[in-house]
Amino acid sequence: MKAFSRRRFLTHMGHSGAWLAFLTACGAGADAALKGLVGRGLLPVAWADDALLGTKPGMTVLTSQPINGEFAPHLLDDDMTPAARHFVRNNGSVPARAKNKDPQGWTLSIEGEVTTPLALSLDELQQLPSVTQQAVIECGGNGRALFEPKVRGNQWTRGAVACSQWTGVRLRDVLKKAGLKSRAVYTAHYGEDQPLGSAQPFSRGIPIEKAMDEHTLIAYQMNGAALPALNGYPVRLVVPGWIGSCSQKWLNRIVVRDQVHDSQKMTGYSYRVPAYPVEPGSRPPKEDMVIATAWRIKSLITAPQANAQFQAGQSITVRGHAWAGEETVKEVLVSTDFGIHWKKTMLTQPANASAWAHWECDLALPRKGHYEIWARAFDDKGNAQPFRQPWNPKGYLGNVIHRLPVLITA
Amino acid sequence: MIIGSALALVWGLAVGEENNQPAGAVPAVQKPVIDEANPGPDVLTREYCSACHSFQLVQAQRLNRATWEWVMEDMVEQFGAGWITPPEQTVIIDYLVEHYGPEK
Predict the structure, then answer these.
(1) What is the pLDDT, as a whole number, of residue A48?
(2) Looking at per-residue confidence, does A4 or A326 come out higher?
(3) pLDDT digits (tens, 9 = 90+) for A161-193
(4) Which end of chain A is more exposed for a tag (fewer CB within 10 A), N or C?
(5) Per-residue pLDDT tens for A254-283?
């Protein structure tokens, strides 16, 4: 993983060879440069997040400060994603509590438009009736790298998605305990992570109806163990079907609001998409941007691996997952001839409503050559994945079909 | 070419009570000090644009001028990089467009 990120880094260094020369002159390694001042120990310990990268072997690291990383599709082959393979999208530094796995002093406060504000300790939270369910969590920017023209932000390809098992308390049970006032319309989530620079603390929210959905959880376990430091220890939200930023990590405070939450990450162009299709490369006025919410139909090919080689006529097992935000996956088709012919795959229903479905089929390519395997999923409402990525200025909700190159030898 | 870049960090009260923010100390990242009389655009860009996050984030982008201007505006106006002066912004944007512009 280290080797990979260095290689990736050096590739980019091609753009500024002078800088590399300068660094060599200074006796600094490329990695130190990569970390800039942080790597030279000139930023606070809050930034010493690197050690945590070891908890995610195989992760493609997009940035190390803050840690952002995804997994190549073939590493996401498991039906239920292991904790070590769950992508990481951090907006700031990992809280000390999470690094030290220290629940001491943590409370979850519920405030705002409630009749009885609460401050629950981890023990108190864990005493409430618990629910265990798998859920797809996917960064709203997953697929951003596939937008044309290019858009700003972390250049996620396809791997900022995972489906792990979450254990926790229904958010609605906690909100009911606090007693929602009639003015309550939206939640505002806060966590213990420190933002970069003078950005506002990362905070997003969801409409009360989604907060009261039986599948929206305050989770304290992932795959039967405490949450990993990078995935929100001790507690995070799990808001199935909606973009990942709704599922606040390191959660410690929920404010119930009488208006749509208006933090930095809820307004302007943050986590928002145009209300209508726009010309690629253009930027519509702020007033025309609406909050990005549920994901749409999507699929991933997890086997074979990209650029795998097979012999002509050899049987190839193609498989992967499909998920549909708040809808249900109906079928997944594959093509090996750029969409001229399509083949049905066998679909296995998800473990539960908020999990992903699995699909599989065997195919053989009779002649040598360079092929692409395409997968296209359909939901029960008649929606399918697009062939070309519809464009929006910040690259959210990308769900273009997955195209996987394979090589067939004679 | 020597940069003994020291970054002074001030832990200040940067964020107020609006939007239900918790009051508290939020780290403000100050302008990196560059020990060089006339730092070139490459040095300026790298030192300034890695003060808060990895420079990897910048290197991964392939953006046109309008989008780099938009990014700069957000760094300066929303995220605390207000210490990048307008002339420096121009130099950095030119550099970004040249090195991390759209692929031809």
Answers:
(1) 67
(2) A326
(3) 999 999 999 999 999 999 999 999 999 999 999
(4) C
(5) 999 999 999 999 999 999 999 999 999 999
For an interface test with B, the pick among A5, A9, A37, A111 (most B C-beta atoms closer than 10 Å) comes out as A37
Residue A20: per-residue pLDDT: 34
Q: Is the pLDDT of residue A307 over 80?
A: yes
Beta bridge partners of A257: A186
- pTM to 2 decimals? 0.88
Query: Nearest CA of chain A to the CA of B15: how many Å?
Result: 7
Between the alpha carbon of residue A292 and those of residues A73, A174, A255, the distances in Å are 24, 25, 20
- Closest-CA residue to A91 (of A229, A245, A255): A245
Sequence-distant (≥ 6) Cβ neighbours of residue A186 within 8 angstroms: A205, A206, A207, A208, A256, A257, A259, A260, A261
Check CB contact under 8 Å for B79 and A197.
Answer: yes
**pLDDT tens readout for residues A88-105:** 999 999 999 999 999 999
Nearest to A196 among B2, B52, B66 (CB): B52
Rounded to an integer, what distance in angstroms lies between the CA atom of residue B11 and that of residue B32?
15
Nearest CA in chain A to B103: A150
**Contacting residues of B for A37, CB less than 8 Å apart:** 5, 7, 32, 47, 50-51
Nearest-CA distance B67 → chain A (Å): 7
Average predicted confidence (pLDDT) for chain A: 90
Which residues 30-49 of B have a C-beta within 8 angstroms of A?
A: 32, 42-43, 46-47
Q: Do A159 and A62 touch, CB atoms closer than 8 A? A: no
What chain A residue is nearest to B49 in terms of C-alpha separation?
Answer: A36
Q: Is the ipTM of this complex over 0.85?
A: yes
Instruction: Assess A255–B contact: CB distance below 8 Å, yes or no.
Output: yes
Q: At what angle do helices A17-26 and B41-49 cross, to 10 degrees?
A: 70
The CA distance from B29 to A66, in Å, is 15
Give the minimum alpha-carbon distance from A240 to chain B in angstroms, rounded to a whole number. 25
Q: In Å, what is the CA distance from A246 to each residue of A117, A138, A405, B19?
A: 22, 10, 33, 17
Tell how far CA A181 is from the center of its chain.
32
Contact A386, A399 (CB under 8 A): yes
| Interchain CB contact of A263 with B (< 8 Å) | yes
**DSSP sequence for A95-136:** PHHHHHT--TT-EEEEEESBSS-EEEEHHHHHHS--EEEEEE
Q: Please check the confidence at residue A17 and state whether its pLDDT lies above 90.
A: no
Residues 61-80 of B with CB under 8 A from A: 61-64, 66-67, 70-71, 75, 78-80
Q: Which residue of B has its CA nearest to A187?
A: B20
